[in-house]
Model the fold of this input.
Amino acid sequence: MTYLHALTTIFVLHFRGNANLWIVFGVSLSIVPLIAVITWITTQSPDSQPIAYISVGVILMAMWQTCVFFSGRSLASEFYEGTVDYTMVSRIPLRVVMLVKSVATLAIAIPSSLIAFATVQIVSRELIDVERPLFLLVSMLVAAWSITVVGYLFAPLFVLVQGRGGFFNAFQPLGIVLSGFLYPISQLSDEVQIVARLLPTSWAMDSVTRSIEPGESLVRIYADWGAALGVSVVMLAATLFMFSKVENTLRRNGNVGRF
Amino acid sequence: MAAALHNIALQAYYSYKGLFLWLNWTAYISNVFIAPVVFVVIVTLTGRFAGQSDSANAYIIGMAAYAIPAILSGGILQSFCYERTFGTLSLIYASRSNRWVTYWSKGLLHYPNGLLAAATSLLFGWLLLDLDFSRLNWPALVVLLLVISFSCLCLCLFVGNFSIALREWIIPVGITNGLLLITSGVVVPVDQLPGFLGEIGRVVPLTHGLSALREAFEGASLGDLVDDIVYELVVGLCYLLAGGFLFSLLEANAKRTGTYESAI
Done:
């Protein structure tokens, strides 16, 4: 019970420390103009499929932008703010604290995701028609979890490579390209598609689009969920390995407050 | 003269080295080389998905040109903001140096970054997305990239003043880039923008330079493009003068209120 209370406190602390209007405004400013012009492009198509596709894709794109940046910097922020010492000596493992922070970051992304969705609706003036709403809901949850896992991976990675300001500016758009948030990844070359399939988000996005479009097989949606969750597990294992490297380095060097 | 040039070079170097925090390998490569190319890919592939294959060239050229203000604004605005955050603004206000030199030197070493970002985007547009270079007028391309970089640099220096005043650079960067992306014809043609946005598009840098750049890719000669080039330069100069004036106003206000460290 005490453990659960501590986890809740971490969630609330991270959420309240980061969920403010300034951050929502900043994140929205970084994506809304791009979403507006992307939507304009899709409105030039006589087909309604591209608009339906990006209507849900931009929600995930906004989550991605927020999670990669804020989850990715979460461990490094512990160093900057001098709180890593307390996290290290607490009874909750560092990796668990950071995972809870990554989940909290997803909650922070909700307002900008809604703004992203609204932008598409305002520019396109079209409401999407969803074939299987329940499947779409589950697919979105799988996609949100996939994004959380990728953001979580960046937390130890950023520290291990000693990343500094501007580090994420390439990864954020690169993830949009490889995850297929704005177009199916079949648009990418065969070689790049292989790389894209190493991200759980590309599988999750497939399940999202299959839930929207009519005539898609349910088996394919289940398979996409399975693949997204499977790749997430592999990614989680890699992340935990990186966390152990960070912790071991800190304990070995005795520089708890500095990496 | 040599001493003056040395002074400009020194100020430009210190400002760049001390206040541009993306000056490390991972961040520099991310921002100058990778991010611009990825944005070109995003917009072009979305266009293809929406059946706009015919517009691919226009999107690639537009996004490559947009890479210039995108990197310049990020670099220059953080330099202005950190001048205040790191406490060096008061030293500038206390010094006897020429303010125009100080102001202008803040952008000097950022200028090549815009050219590099645009050139990389065009190169990868050709390698990955089949950008057509067959009819390109190469001298016009070089001149236009230089001119667009100049005008965008002037805009970024102008907006940099707001970074000092607000003690914040990410929001001004977002506003500047967003405004240019929407209004300057990067993706949406200016004549198709709703009323007031189209009017904004006519008075921001990039619009005329980009229009000329697209014509250069169709084989237009420098003589055909002279109007757009001059207009782009004039827009840039207006922002340069307005920005310098604003920089002086901030200083005057800081001295009047005795707040050297904060400008406002």
Notes: The longest helix of chain B spans residues 226-257.
